[in-house]
Each structure stands twice: as C-alpha cells, then as structure tokens.
Design a protein that fits this description.
Structural class: alpha+beta
Shape: globular
Mean pLDDT: 93
Family: Belongs to the acetyltransferase family. RimJ subfamily.
Number of domains: 1
InterPro entries: Acyl_CoA_acyltransferase, GNAT_dom, N-acetyltransferase
CATH superfamily: Gcn5-related N-acetyltransferase (GNAT)
Keywords: Acyltransferase, Transferase
Strand order of the largest sheet: 1-2-3-4-5-6-8-7
Oligomer: single chain
Organism: Streptomyces pactum
Protein name: GNAT family N-acetyltransferase
Length: about 210
C-alpha cells in the first residue's frame, strides 16, 4: 500500500496489526462487553439542523473500509491491539499531515479486562516509534477529556507534554466536550519511546 503500511508492531505480549474485516466478531464482542467502560469517552454524532442530512454511525464493514482507504492514501494508521493473542482494543493514528507540519494524532481504547497491565502504554510507545522512525512524522498529539484519568496517565507516563485545553473540541457521549492536548516531537525521544517505557515501567529497575 505504501512504504510504512501495512505493518505489524510487537513488544512482548502486545501486538499491533492492521484492522481486518474478519475481526468483526472479536471486535464486536470486546466492544459490547465494554459498553459502560467506553461510553463516556466515545465519539458521537452531533444533532443536525432541521432539514439537514441525517448522519448514521457507520457499520463495522463501512468503518474498516474507510480506515483501509485512508491508510492506503497515507492519512491514517488503523491498528487493532492484541494482548496474548486476543483482540484487546484499537489504536488509530489519524489526521496525518505532510508538508511543513508532518504530524498526526493518536486515539485509542482498550478492553477493561486488560487495563493496568501496561498494554496501552506499550501500544502507544510502539506507534510513536513507528511514526517518528519509519513514517517520518515530526509531531504526535493525543487529545483527552480532562475527566479521563486512566487515559491521561498513559501519556503522562510516556512523557507527553500537556499543552493546554481545547474547549468543546469533540462531540463525545452526546455533547461537545473539552479536551486536553498532549504532544511530543521527535527531538524529545531520541532514544525511542519504547526504550523509555521499558526503563520507566514497574519492575524495570530490578531487571
């Protein structure tokens, strides 16, 4: 498709690979089981003006086809996350912009059953290294609702800078929600983010 996609990234029990149509059954099971866990942080479609177009959430098939099309065009990297061989979440690098910016932003969710095991920090670290070293991006952003403590801890552990608040930035859980912006540039992790995470994660000092 292009020089940096498709690709599979792995570290220990955590694997990122391209999302596939045949993931539907496993993706639906994890997503439905985590409805209450994910709902407060999930993007929603804002209401339209009277007489405006009615916009429906895409089906799984439509979502995957859109993600694959965007990946083919070099604008997105759509991964599923596997932990110990089972689908455990999703991570997407979206809004990839070239020219004088060379940036993108990361969004993710993970199965509550594996939260707290280092899966998401590992997945983000793998992705950042791929974006900086293979794709050639210079800046990565992650935008998170201030109330989402677990997600904020992921990027804070990895050393992302908090840059400020974007008021009413995205339509989440039925309303326009403020988001904190976290960012990182390639110069800030010359040793690689995965190497940094390996040094920082619990138990590393005893190895």
């Amino acid at each position: 498709m292009n020089a940096f996609w498709p690709v599979e990234l792995a570290d220990g029990d955590t694997v990122l690979r391209p999302i596939r149509l045949r993931d539907h059954k496993a993706w639906r099971e994890v997503n439905q089981r985590n409805r209450e866990w994910l709902r407060p942080w999930e993007a929603t479609i804002p209401p339209t003006l009277p007489g405006g177009p009615v916009i429906h959430r895409p089906t799984y098939r439509q979502m995957v086809r859109h993600l694959r099309s965007e990946a083919h065009a070099g604008r997105m990297l759509p991964f599923v996350i596997e932990y110990r061989g089972r689908l455990a979440g999703q991570l997407t690098v979206a809004g990839i912009t070239w020219g004088s910016m060379c940036s993108g932003h990361i969004g993710y969710w993970v199965d509550e059953a594996v939260a707290g095991r280092g899966v998401m920090p590992t997945a983000v670290a793998l992705t950042v290294d791929h974006c900086f070293r293979a794709v050639g991006l210079h800046r990565i952003e992650v935008c998170i609702r201030p109330e989402n403590g677990p997600s904020r801890r992921v990027v804070e552990k990895l050393g992302f800078r908090e840059e400020g608040l974007r008021p009413r930035y995205l339509h989440i859980d039925g309303a326009w929600r403020d988001h904190l912006v976290y960012a990182l540039t390639a110069e800030e992790v010359p040793e690689g983010m995965l190497a940094r995470w390996h040094r920082m994660r619990p138990g590393a000092s005893q190895k």
